[in-house]
Amino acid sequence: MSITIKDVEHVANLARLELSEQEKEQFAGQLSAILKYAEKLDELNTDDVEPTSHVLPVTNVMRDDVNRESVTVEVALKNAPDAEDGQFKVPAVLE
Fold this sequence. Notes:
Histone, subunit A; mainly alpha; 4% strand
């Protein structure tokens, strides 16, 4: 499969890119070369290869939740530009 100039123009339009004629030709050649290289994968026998989402086996990668002490209100508000009654004070956004 090869990429045409029209294909490059379509993708550039979707990406909101303006390309010169030289760039269109350059990208068409580069993308065609990439697809040609990827077509080599069709030569591989993958009948016994199980589909995977990761190269390595991945189990739960999340750490266990641990209860710990939170910062105090005073520490949280220490660098606040403005605070009132133990809360951050911000300009009103509604009238």
